[in-house]
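Quick one: structure for this chain?
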Amino acid sequence: MTEIIRFVDAVARPWVNGRGTTMVLLDDDEGSGWTYRVSVADLSGRQDFSTLPEVHRHLVFLGPGRLELVIDGSSATLDPFERVEFDGEARASSLPSHRAARDLNIMTRRGAAVARVLLTPTLDIFPQPSPDRLVAFLVALDSTCAVAGRGIGELDVVMVPEGRMTHADGPILFVEIFARESRGIAVLEVV
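Got it. Here's what it folds into:
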């Protein structure tokens, strides 16, 4: 059976800078720090993001409404399911148009791991075995998602095993995280 990490079981934690909260869905922290982390942050009003040295961030805006971002002085406006990448050292702030907005963060330690992120409405995937892949998973971006015909909850994480076909209907975010020393990420077959 495929492992599912339920969003409803996630525990809220304060941001590093104390100016918000996040729900950690998945990481590899075993007491000595993490190489990768997947979390959902609540966004309410203008907020400065925590500075995270040596971290690369993928941010997917979940909605509702729109999200105005300022990253090192450059502005961008995101609609739901649009994403942006930036370095953790960047000075970043957000202003959501709706007070119940959220974003999904996929973060990797620079020099230790790299993430490949794909947003898709449907996916048939057969991950080939790779010694460089640390983890592969799907994130359900709304409550209409199903994996292998089984409904899953919004923001649930479904682990994708190597060497086994997985079918998902979305909107789905597919993420693979590789060791930085990876010889490439062409080890995935998307059908």
